[in-house]
Write a structure and sequence with these properties.
The chain is an alpha+beta fold. Helix content is about 50%, strand content about 10%.
């Protein structure tokens, strides 16, 4: 499969660096996609490609695809002609195709079709589409079409996708066998962490370890060598020794004594991007605090039976394909590669393991299950002889497992003074807020709302792992968070965007989400809490019109709050805790109503913003 290799050992700070280097071959790390860092954005790229399905991916259509990406605002070139600047200064304007074409031509690319090829590359690589000149018409695969559906399981989509991703393959020229590649990265990473955990008391990988040792694992035959490198790295005593090791490791991997800082940084970029994709499968668990400190990635315990079944069936090496056509048939087939738990006996093992996890959790935490949940756990699974019935049962068990873990987390949040202070410190500090990603921000606001304690339900709409941790931000067609109380309901929309585009990217979607929520639950006592580090004046103006006059024929109840405003809610809660009293959602309801009622008395949005500040100050000063 690969050319002859030599074993190089270099002593470094009392540790041994062990690495195989291909003779006379410059090595490079593998990566999933640097074109599209956010996996969810692939769906938008795929929607645009769908417009060209059935046509050949000729040079003309490669250019057309890139123009369509500009038209749909999925790609913004660096140089915008002055006469078309208004389309970006007024982003509510639709970009006509001919304008997008002129913007594309203005870039004066040396190889214009290459831009379309680069943009479609991650869709090809991940098995969502087949789009390449000379290989028939553009085709969205079954997996790609599943991804485009409104109600899809993101975990299943990316599990199937990443199981197909391998190097080398006949479809990719990037990572060839002659350069030492023989790996299915997803399986090889599962195997490396699984075997590492058998040999080390430190479970999983730190972010630094993941970024250094996973993208440079190019051959599944060398998993053990890479584990040795990780164990050696962990023996180093201080940061100076670790930095020396990293540089030595990079020199050996790249096969060159002259290594730039860029090559080191590339490993971090590739690793960080890979983590985003791997997490979506829900087979990995990440431990970290809200700002990403103390970060570790490990295998998800509730999926351990599936992981062991996968590792029993696949070794992490690349499959062999004789022709490109054979490989294209493989990535087009949603049933391949076969999942071990598609066999009913293996599926029963998954269900039994999950039930045992729930039973252990209930016993450990002293939880009393409700009658229906108790029946679910006690079901005799030997009676299940149909795959679809067993799969439904597993989904119900996973749902119960998640509910129990979220309930445990909620109990730990309520009245937790240190956690309240931690969230307040983040919401009050713009520097700390800038370190958050969107899903991290949504999680903090969700926790803050749960800390307020007497809700019926606080329901974030971001997809979660089996521990309830967000693996991505909420989809664009739903509110970020739904809040249900006895006397009112609300949605909470959050954004880190503070630019002058805030009102465009957040204003209309927020009002539309609220209107849909109002229609679903009745229009009485329905609010939207909008939270951002800073609220742009155009956003205030947009919301003020909606509240004072109307949106789509009826007024709405929108309360715009900065993160510092929202922190005041938690500071008020601390006052209640310190005096031994309970904070009630009635307090929130009264505050929200005051803000809405004052809107009717002021004549401009600027007066409204000042009034919100005053009302919050007065509310904080009220005696408890």
């Amino acid at each position: 499969m690969t050319s002859p290799a030599v074993l190089i050992e270099r002593s470094s700070n009392n540790s041994v660096l062990t690495l195989f280097i291909e003779v006379n071959k410059m090595r490079k790390p593998w990566s999933i996609s640097t074109t599209v860092r956010n996996p969810e954005r692939l769906r938008d790229f795929l929607k645009v490609l769908k417009q060209l399905e059935g046509e050949s991916f000729t040079k003309e259509n490669q250019v057309k695809y890139q123009i369509l990406l500009i038209k749909e605002r999925l790609y913004k070139p660096n140089n915008i002609p002055p006469k078309y600047q208004r389309y970006y200064e007024e982003p509510t304007l639709e970009i006509p195709y001919n304008v997008a074409e002129k913007i594309f031509e203005y870039q004066n690319y040396e190889d214009p079709p290459m831009r379309g090829r680069q943009s479609v590359n991650p869709l090809n690589k991940l098995g969502f589409a087949i789009a390449r000149e000379g290989y028939g018409p553009i085709k969205i695969t079954d997996l790609g079409n599943l991804f485009l559906e409104g109600d899809y399981d993101i975990g299943f989509v990316f599990l199937k996708s990443l199981l197909k991703l391998q190097f080398p393959n006949p479809w990719s020229r990037d990572f060839s066998a002659k350069h030492g590649f023989n790996i299915t990265p997803f399986i090889a990473t599962l195997r490396l962490i699984y075997e590492l955990n058998q040999r080390s008391k430190i479970k999983g990988l730190s972010k630094e370890e993941f970024c250094l040792f996973i993208p440079t694992l190019t051959d599944a035959n060398r998993i053990n060598d890479q584990i040795e490198n990780i164990l050696a790295f962990r023996k180093l005593r201080n940061n100076e020794e670790k930095q020396e090791y990293i540089w030595n490791f990079a020199r050996e991997f790249y096969g060159s004594e002259k290594i730039t800082k860029t090559k080191i940084n590339n490993l971090s970029d590739y690793g960080d991007n890979t983590i985003r994709y791997f997490r979506l499968t829900r087979f990995f668990r990440i431990h970290m605090n809200p700002l990403g400190h103390h970060w570790r990635i490990d295998l998800e315990p509730s999926r351990m039976t599936e992981i062991e079944q996968l590792l029993g069936q696949y070794d992490g090496k690349a499959f062999e394909f004789k022709t490109v056509e054979e490989y294209l048939e493989y990535i087009s087939d949603i049933t391949r590669p076969q999942l071990p738990w598609e066999h009913i006996d293996n599926l029963k093992k998954v269900a039994v393991n999950l039930r045992n996890i729930i039973v252990d959790l209930v016993k450990r935490e002293g939880i009393k299950l409700e009658q229906n949940d108790q029946r679910l756990v006690e079901i005799d699974m030997s009676k299940f002889n149909k795959k679809d019935i067993l799969e439904k049962h597993i989904r119900e068990l996973r749902g119960l497992n998640l509910r129990l873990k979220l309930s445990i987390k909620k109990k730990k949040l309520v009245g937790n003074i240190e956690k309240i202070k931690e969230i307040i410190s983040i919401l009050d500090n713009p520097r700390l807020l800038r370190k958050l990603d969107p899903e991290g921000f949504e999680k903090i606001l969700t926790e803050a709302l749960k800390i307020l304690n007497d809700e019926i339900l606080i329901k974030p709409n971001y997809p979660v792992d089996d521990e309830g941790e967000p693996i991505n931000h909420a989809p664009g067609n739903k509110p970020d968070i739904e809040c249900y109380y006895r006397t009112f309901k609300a949605i909470c929309e959050v954004t880190l965007n503070t630019s002058n585009l805030q009102w465009v990217q957040e204003g209309q979607p927020v009002m539309r989400h609220l209107r849909n929520f109002e229609r679903e639950h009745g229009f009485e006592n329905i609010y939207c809490i909008f939270v951002a580090p800073r609220i742009h004046k155009d956003t205030y103006s947009q919301f003020w019109i909606s509240v004072k006059y109307e949106y789509d024929g009826k007024p709405q109840k929108i309360i715009p709050l900065t993160t510092q405003h929202f922190a005041l809610l938690l500071k008020k809660l601390l006052q209640y805790i310190e005096t031994g009293k309970k904070f009630s959602h009635y307090e929130l309801h009264k505050l929200y109503e005051k803000i809405i009622n004052e809107t009717k008395k002021v004549n401009s949005f600027s007066d409204w913003t000042r009034k919100i500040d005053q009302l919050l100050e007065c509310w904080m000063e009220e005696r408890i």
